[in-house]
Amino acid sequence: MRLEVPDVIEPADLLGRVHFVGIGGAGLSAIARLMAQQGIAVSGSDASDSAVLQALVAEGIDARVGHAAENLDKVDTVIASTAVREDNPEIVEALRRGLRLWPRSAGLQSVLLGGRTVAVAGTHGKTTTTAMLTCALRGAGADPSFAIGAEVPSLGSNAARGSGDVIVAEADESDGAFLVYTPHGVVVTNVDADHLDQWGTAEAYAEAFDQFVGHAEAFAVLNVDDDGAAALVRSVPDGVDLLTAGFGDGARLRGADLQVRGDGTTFTARLDDGPAVTVELVVPGEHYAVDALLALGAGIGLGHDLARLSAGLRDYTGAARRMQYLGEIAGVRVYDSYAHHPTEIAADLAAARAVAGADRLVVAYQPHLVSRTRIHGRDMGRALSAADRVIVADLYLAREDPDPDVTSALVVDAVEGSIATVGGPVDQLHRVLLDELRDGDLLLTLGAGDITTVGPRVLEGLAGE
């Protein structure tokens, strides 16, 4: 459901009691946590129970399973996820009562008001870059607030209030939310056409990033190794400090000497003509090195020292569903990742290959959305060709209706060779995988839907539970 952004967004402390419809999601749970830590009365509901919901309850937030009109008793403001439908009983009740009804973007902006916000955007890597920037700033002695689109173990949460005036926020472009914010600084990781069900064309999608960068007040950090992000140089407003970052020639903050191993990544970073600083990450992958370089750039934009920022990056151990290690049983290592776009799939498979070494890489993939699979399905298949074995589950529909012409077979048919098969429903996929896996394999489950449930079920099966 799409809600209009109000013309005037009041600060969070003027919203009264705030209720979140879809509070178990990464975006709304982050806002709810920030408001609750500010002393605002917060409640929320979600369609099903989850670890996030249980954690919110443990933190003292009234988070309930199930949507019902009575959940809005004594509520003044309702903030809803875009995944919520118009016939949701809480949405219907909010409209009937004439309550303030806001989209997620307005809710986050109400929290950001009054601080120096660094908004991190991009088609890929924004969650990781936001988390890395938070770790880097802590390493430099700062204590920023943060709102991130995934749980980050090294930070203890996906959101928290710090003692400083800086707020590091993941800025999501999928529904245009990132255009609502008024950032002190912006970071763009890359621009690679996606969410065309929202934007319509690749040109419109790129134009939205032009507008986003145009909102920067103090500095902009752009990945000039990516053509889409590099093109945004022209959109940086006069008087805003531009810090280009990348591993290629011409970047002000330049990475070099990149080494990716199974247990991590190292490279050197140099700002302009300054000394080179060695950066050590405990996560393997070239794309993580790029994200780290951009995080360092944002820290520099805030006035911090490159060497102290890089030391903080050693604390970043990953984020939930970003090449997340789930466990090893019977000689099978299991990882899970949110990757669902061809570029993300290729990057994660490259990282997984570094971890797997000479062992077999088995990938279980769930295409996300009919519209994305219609546009990118064949490229998804080509990216998956880097695995030794690929099993593709049925599509995750989310907010869309099925299309008989768009199925997982579209992806399977594009995988090179005969290494791919259709795996069927996600709730049966663990059985297919248990028949396939053998000692030494690395299993990577991929997708933005409920395929995240498969890895734990595979581990249970391997343990004989």
Task: Give a short overview.
It contains 15 helices and 21 strands. The chain is α/β, with parallel strands linked by helices and 465 residues long.
- Averaged pLDDT: 92
Total domain modules = 3
- The class by helix and strand makeup works out as alpha/beta
CATH class of the largest domain: Alpha Beta
Q: Approximately how much helix is present in the residues?
A: 25-40%
Put simply, the count of helices is 15
- Largest sheet: spatial strand order: 8-7-9-6-10-11-12-13-14-15
Largest sheet: 10 strands, mixed
| CATH-defined topology of the largest domain | UDP-N-acetylmuramoyl-L-alanine:D-glutamate ligase
- The CATH architecture assignment of the largest domain turns out to be 3-Layer(aba) Sandwich
CATH homology group of the largest domain = Mur-like, catalytic domain
N-to-C terminal Cα separation, in Å? 40 Å
Total strand segments: 21
Beta-strand proportion: 15-25%
The 3D shape can be described as globular
Oligomeric state of the chains in view: single chain
Give Rg in angstroms.
Answer: 22 Å
